[in-house]
Specification:
Blueprint: H1 2-29, E1 46-47, H2 50-59, E2 62-67, E3 73-78, E4 80-82, E5 90-96, E6 111-122, E7 136-146, E8 149-150, H3 154-171, H4 184-191, E9 194-200, E10 203-209, H5 216-228, H6 236-244
Antiparallel strand pairs: 1-10, 2-3, 2-6, 4-5, 5-9, 6-7, 7-10, 8-9
C-alpha cells in the first residue's frame, strides 16, 4: 500500500510539473509588453506628438514591412492607417499570397513598418556658424511596431482594397476609375492572390533629424539652401521614362 501511494504521488508530481511547464511554454509564446526600440533616436530628434506622426504616416503611406519570419524579409507596400483603433492606431495592407513573409501574420511574430519621408544632404557651408561643423544628412522616419494578424474575412479584404484604391485615385486626381463597378467574380478571384493583414500599433517611434537642435541662424540657412533645390533626385516620371528606354524593342 505505501508503495502504491508513493507511485501515485510520483505520477501526480510528474503531471503537475508537465502542466506547469506547458503553462510556461504558453506564456513564453504570448506577447509581453511593448516591443523593444527598433532604431536609435537622440533626444533632440524624438517626436511623439500623435497627430503629427499620423499625418506623416498618411502622407508617406508607401512603407517597408520588415519581419524576421521565415527569415529577415522586407516587402514594399502601400498601407492604410486607422487612427481610431488602438492606442496608436491600426495599420492594414496586403502582400502577395506567394510571399513567404505571410508566415509572420499569426499575431505572435513581431513586425516593424517603416514610413520614410524626404531626405537630403546638409552642407556645413549652409550654417550661420561654420566653426567646428561637419556635413550631415537630414531626414524624417516613423517606425510602427506590432504583431500582424491575417485578415480572413472576405468583406474586410474587399474594403481594404476599395479604401486603398479610393485614397490613391484621389491623390493622383483620377475620377474615372470605379473599383465598385468591377465584376465581383473577377475581384474575388484577384483577392485569392493576396495575403491581407492588419497590425495594431504597439509602439510608435518618430525620428526627425532636421537640425532642430541648432541655432536659429543655422536653421534659417538650412531652409534657405534647401529651398533653392540645386540637387534634385529623379522623379518617378524620370526614372520610369529612363527605365523604359533600356527595355528591348
Amino acid at each position: 500500500m505505501p508503495i502504491e501511494m508513493n507511485r501515485r504521488a510520483v505520477l501526480l508530481g510528474l503531471f503537475s510539473a508537465a502542466a506547469i511547464a506547458g503553462e510556461d511554454d504558453i506564456d513564453a509564446q504570448e506577447p509581453s509588453g511593448p516591443p523593444d526600440p527598433s532604431l536609435y533616436i537622440p533626444k533632440a530628434h524624438v517626436v511623439d506628438e500623435l497627430k503629427f506622426l499620423h499625418d506623416f504616416m498618411e502622407e508617406f503611406s508607401f512603407v517597408m514591412l520588415v519581419t524576421a519570419t521565415p527569415t529577415l524579409r522586407i516587402t514594399h507596400i502601400p498601407s492604410i492607417l486607422d487612427r481610431t483603433q488602438g492606442r496608436f492606431g491600426t495599420l492594414r495592407g496586403h502582400i502577395s499570397a506567394q510571399n513567404a513573409q505571410k508566415a509572420a501574420f499569426d499575431g505572435t511574430h513581431q513586425a516593424v513598418i517603416v514610413f520614410r519621408g524626404p531626405q537630403g544632404y546638409i552642407s556645413p557651408t549652409w550654417y550661420a556658424t561654420q566653426a567646428s561643423v561637419v556635413p550631415t544628412w537630414n531626414f524624417g522616419v516613423v517606425h510602427a511596431s506590432g504583431r500582424p494578424r491575417p485578415i480572413t474575412d472576405k468583406a474586410k479584404t474587399y474594403d481594404l482594397l476599395a479604401t486603398l484604391i479610393r485614397r490613391n485615385e484621389q491623390r493622383v486626381g483620377s475620377t474615372e476609375y470605379d473599383f465598385a463597378a468591377q465584376p465581383r467574380e473577377y475581384v474575388d478571384r484577384m483577392m485569392q492572390g493576396i495575403s491581407p493583414f492588419e497590425m495594431e500599433i504597439q509602439a510608435l517611434e518618430g525620428k526627425f533629424k532636421l537640425g532642430q537642435e541648432r541655432s536659429e541662424g543655422d536653421r534659417n540657412g538650412v531652409v534657405a539652401h534647401l529651398a533653392r533645390g540645386e540637387y534634385k533626385e529623379r522623379s518617378l516620371h524620370d526614372l520610369t521614362q529612363a527605365f523604359y528606354k533600356t527595355l528591348p524593342k
